[in-house]
Structure formats: C-alpha cells, structure tokens
Amino acid sequence: MKGHSPAHGPGATRERIYRSLLESANVIFNINSRGRITSISPSIKQFTGHTREELIGQNFTRFIYPQDVQVVRQSIARAGPDNNVHVEFRLICKNGEIRYVRATSLAHIDVRGVNKQAVTGIITDISGHKKTQEQLRNCALYDSLTGLFNRSCFQKELSRGHPPGNAGIIVCDVDGLKQFNDLFGHSKGDAVLVAAAGMIENCCPSSSLIARTGGDEFAAILYDVREKDIMAACNKLQDTVKEHNTLCPDMPISLSTGYAVDKTPDLKKILKTAEYNMHREKLHRDKSKESAVVKALLRTLEEKDTFTERHSRRLPDLVVSLAGAVSLPEHAMPDLKLFAQFHDVGKIAISDNILMKPAPLTAKEIKEMRRHSEIGCRIAQSAPSLAPIAKWILKHHEWWNGEGYPLGLQGEKIPLPCRILSICDAYDAMTSNRPYRRAMSKDAAINELRKFSNRQFDSLLVNKFIELIA
Predict the structure, then answer these.
(1) Rounded-to-integer distance, Cα 423 and Cα 418, Å
(2) What global pTM score does this model have?
(3) What does the pLDDT read at residue 360?
(4) Which site from 153, 326, 393, 395 is most exposed, i.e. has the minimal number of CB atoms within 10 Å?
C-alpha cells in the first residue's frame, strides 16, 4: 500500500492554509483559558507599537478599549471548534492611539486535554474602512461646505413630525448668490454661504435642527418654541447681517427670511407657511439690499483700476450729451448713465496683471480681456437694477464694420446706446493717461475718431460728437 506524499497529504494542506494565514493576516494570536496571551505574531509591533515580549503573559483585555471588552468576551464565549466568530472592536496602541480591528476567532480544546478552552484568532486592521464609513455617514447627514445638516436629513426630520407643543420653522434665502459667484468666483460665493450659515446657527437655539436645504437656501426647525422667541431669533439674525455688512462692506450679505409657528405635528405644513411668509417679505422689501450690492460692484471695479474710477465718473456726462444731441428721449437717460458707469463691470473678473500691464497685451491676454463683456452681461443679469443694460454691456465692443466682439454685429444691428458709448468711451480713454501710454491731445483724439469712422464707429454719431466737443 502506497503512502501519501508529504507534499500532498492532509497535513500538508493544513500547513499551506496556516502559512497562508500567517502571510495574509495582520496579527495571529493565541489566548489561553484564563484570557492571557500565550503567543502572538511579531507583526504586532508594527500594528500597536507593543513587542511580543511585552504582550505575552498579559491579559488580553488590557489592550482593548474599555467599552468594547464586554462585546469581545461575549464573542469568545460563542466561539467553538466548528463556529468561527467575528467581532469588531478598538485596540489601544502603545502611544495611546485607538485603532479599529476585526478579529476572527476559533475556540478549541487545550492540547493538554484538560477540557479548558483556548482561542486562536486573526486580527485585521479596519481603521481605514471605519474612517471611510464615517465619512460616508457624514455625507449622508451633513452639508460638506457649511457643516450644517443637509437637505436629505432635513426632509427626514420633516417626515417624523414633532412631539406635542409648538414647533417653528425659519427659512432663509441668500439673495444674489449667483451674482457673487459671477463677480468674485465660486470661492467667494462659498464664503458668503459659510458666513450666512454661521449667522443662522448663532441666532437659533442650540437644540434647533439647522440645514442647508438648497444652493442658497437654509432652514431651521425649532422645537417647543413660542412665537415671540422665533421672532426674536429672526430679528437677531437681521441685526447680525447688518453688523456684518458694516464690518465687511465689500462683501454685503442679504438674507430673506420667513417663519411660522404651530402646534400641528405636520412640520411640512409649517414649512409651507414659513416659505410663503418669506416670499411675501421679498415682494414688499425695498431695494436697499440691491443698491448695496450695486455699490459694492462699482467700488470693487474702481479699486481694481484707478483709471476706471475717474473714467466712470466722466463718461456718463459725455454719453448723455451725445444721446441728447441725437434726440434720445429723457426717460432713456437713467439707463444710459448706468450703462456708462457699469459697461466694464466684467473687468472685475480679469487679472490685474492684464488690466495694469504697461506693455501691449499678447494674443492670449487679449482673448482673456475680451471675456469681460460676456462676464459683465452675466453680472448685470443677476442684479435687477442692472438687468435692463445687460445686453448693452454684452455688445459695447461691437464695431460698425462687424469686426468687433463678441458677436460680430454690424451697422445698425448694434444697439444705439452701444454705438454712442463706444465713441465717448474711446475719446475719454485716448485723452487720459493709461498704464501703457500717456494721454493724447484733444485734436489727436478727434483725428483718431475720424480715422475709425465707418470702421469702428458710426460716422453720423462721430460727426455729432465732434460738434459737441469742438
């Protein structure tokens, strides 16, 4: 009878399995019936900072996070020769760090045959997995930008209802967020949202559930609250906004708010009333918030370029004079003045290195500079008082012969206000000092206007303008 080859028998199979475990597991350990560690892999030092010599003979519970000891003991009690158990718990490292681990254990009869159980197990580090789980849980609950609860969490709270007693909801919209994003970039817009979130959080009771429910929308649920308390919170919020705008005039924030209080357990009904009240406030509110934003736009534009500040003050008079000379109606003048002030508002988004460059621009820089008319149009569209001039801002660099930008319009397809502004704008720019050249004389500037008549400028308007300034 042929014997089994040592390389292929059951013993060899067990040896391969055991070797595989040794190579793949973080730590293999053995605990005797008294709970003391009798053997452990050398890799324990990298795992926890403890050496084998420090651990062998010690009770295993010394190295387990106290709140997890009972869970580990119960899992060991369930283990048996044919019953692997899996348990997750926290280990305390030598430096005090806490690591999450998963242990797979198998109880077996002591080799001495005294019917005392010992446990052999494998420990795997799952700290990274736990961290990922925690991040996923946070994503499910919290808004990553503001740290408040997110819309999903808010909706779940609405569906739960509330215990007996009054509940109130405050809803807030950040006015003009799109404008801030277009004007200053999304990072500045994000700063506005974070600031608004902090204000709302500071003005509501600590027991409130506060959430970011949309791009520029927030809501707070207040439990066991009286109407006067929720009114006080809203008033405090508006006072905080005013204080912020005084301290940070270059980044004004406007919040539209509405609230509702009711004993009904239906929070969705309370929310609907609060939203209605907020929209009603928006309709009745004056334009002071918008004028503050418009002033901030102009101030930012002037601070970027000192030439722009003087230019935007001189240009309205020139534009209105030429408009009057071609018999534009008086009611058109306010929009023309606004156009003269804000036609270059898109330059806010253009690099100072380009705006203030003392030498001619490169082809790439010219392309970047030309973006300002489209950017300015988007900014104006987001501010109701500037919206009527948005299309003019887009087209104020179109040329009479069609070689302008960004649309390549030609002749009378270019709006009359744009044709008027282009002449006044060019004249004022030529007769003013710029970073890359000194001012021209009046006569030299007039000659340039004549030279580009019927090319860049409407010739009839050029003649009218020269008559005005001659």
Answers:
(1) 9
(2) 0.48
(3) 87
(4) 326
What's the rounded Cα separation, in Å, for the pair 254 and 235?
14
Contacts of residues 17-21 at CB distance under 8 Å and 24 or more positions apart, as own/partner, are 21/122
**Whole-number Å distance between alpha carbons of 399 and 382:** 26
The span from the CA of 168 to the CA of 61, in Å, is 49
Are 425 and 343 within 8 A, CB to CB? yes
Class of domain 293-469: mainly alpha
Judged by average pLDDT, the poorest of 112-116, 121-125, 234-238 is 112-116
Query: Sign of the C-alpha dihedral, residues 468, 309, 241, 140?
Result: positive
What single-letter amino acid sits at 350?
Answer: I
Question: For residues 137 and 159, is the Cβ–Cβ distance under 8 A?
Answer: no
Task: Convert the pLDDT of each residue in 383-392 to its tens digit.
Answer: 777 889 999 9
Domain residues of the chain, as ranges? 10-128, 142-285, 293-469
The superfamily (CATH) of domain 142-285 is Reverse transcriptase/Diguanylate cyclase domain (3.30.70.270)
CA distances from 202 to 135, 205, 332 (A): 25, 8, 46
Alpha-carbon gap, residue 205 to 82, rounded angstroms:
56
CATH number for the domain whose boundaries are 10-128: 3.30.450.20
158-210 pLDDT tens trace = 888 766 678 899 999 998 787 677 667 788 888 889 999 999 999 998 888 99
Closest C-alpha among 384, 378, 429, 426 to residue 406: 378
Q: What is the mean pLDDT of residues 414-429?
A: 95
Q: What average pLDDT does the chain have?
A: 82
